[in-house]
């Protein structure tokens, strides 16, 4: 597993502070665990982080797909983001992980967007789900794209599911760039 660069760590820490501020004033959100996704990291590298808010450390990480609509075709991995229905883009911002349901990908968790940049998440059916084509381990190449959902490997999803299902409060997911 690759260690985060100093810049990636700084971005992560900024978003962790934002989550801590939010959970301090909003009851019902976990003060123990948060999920963070750094979309500046290439899709073949671990960029979905499970963060222990109490001990300030990453406790798990995995690959996550971004929306096919986020691809710009520009070298240097420039991605674009949108909250628009049918854009197939990833939306940036903070999400609250909601109840699970059984869908086309099996168990999935609904995501409720808490910001202007992602407040259409429920309407767009943006959910946290797994897909067999997402690899378990880091790759030198880009992984498959989603329709805008954070899509992870089956093995990583099982680990996330345990955390979500055992939490007595909502877990926040922050997607940033």
What would your notes on this structure say?
Helix content is about 20%, strand content about 30%. The chain is of the alpha+beta class. Strands 3-2-1-8-4-5-6-7 form an eight-stranded mixed sheet. The mean pLDDT is about 95.
Question: Nutshell version of this structure?
Answer:
This protein is α+β, with helices and mostly antiparallel strands and 177 residues long. The protein has helices at residues 6-25, 154-166; strands spanning 29-38, 48-52, 57-62, 93-103, 106-113, 127-130, 151-152, 170-176.
Largest sheet: 8 strands, mixed
Number of strands: 8
Kindly report the spatial arrangement of strands forming the biggest sheet.
Answer: 3-2-1-8-4-5-6-7
Helix/strand/pairing category: alpha+beta
Q: How confident overall, as mean pLDDT? A: 95
Q: What's the shape?
A: globular
Q: Helix and strand string, N-terminal first?
A: HEEEEEEEHE
* Helix content class: 10-25%
Distance between the termini: 21 Å
Counted by DSSP, the helix tally is 2
Radius of gyration: 15 Å
């Amino acid at each position: 597993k690759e260690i985060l660069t100093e810049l990636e760590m700084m971005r992560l820490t900024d978003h962790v502070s934002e989550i801590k501020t939010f959970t301090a004033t909003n009851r019902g959100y976990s003060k123990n665990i948060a999920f963070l996704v750094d979309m500046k990291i290439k899709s073949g590298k671990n960029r979905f982080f499970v963060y222990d808010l109490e001990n300030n450390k990453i406790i798990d990480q995995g690959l996550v797909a971004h929306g096919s609509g986020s691809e710009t075709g520009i070298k240097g991995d420039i991605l674009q983001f949108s909250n628009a229905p049918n854009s197939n883009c990833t939306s940036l911002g903070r999400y609250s992980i909601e109840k699970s349901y059984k869908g086309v990908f099996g168990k999935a968790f609904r995501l409720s967007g808490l910001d202007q940049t992602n407040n259409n998440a429920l309407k767009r059916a943006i959910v946290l789900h797994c897909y067999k084509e997402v690899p378990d381990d880091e790759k030198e190449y880009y992984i498959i794209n989603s329709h805008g959902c954070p899509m992870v490997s089956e093995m990583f999803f099982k680990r996330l599911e345990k955390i979500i299902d055992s939490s007595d409060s909502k877990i926040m997911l922050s997607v940033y760039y």
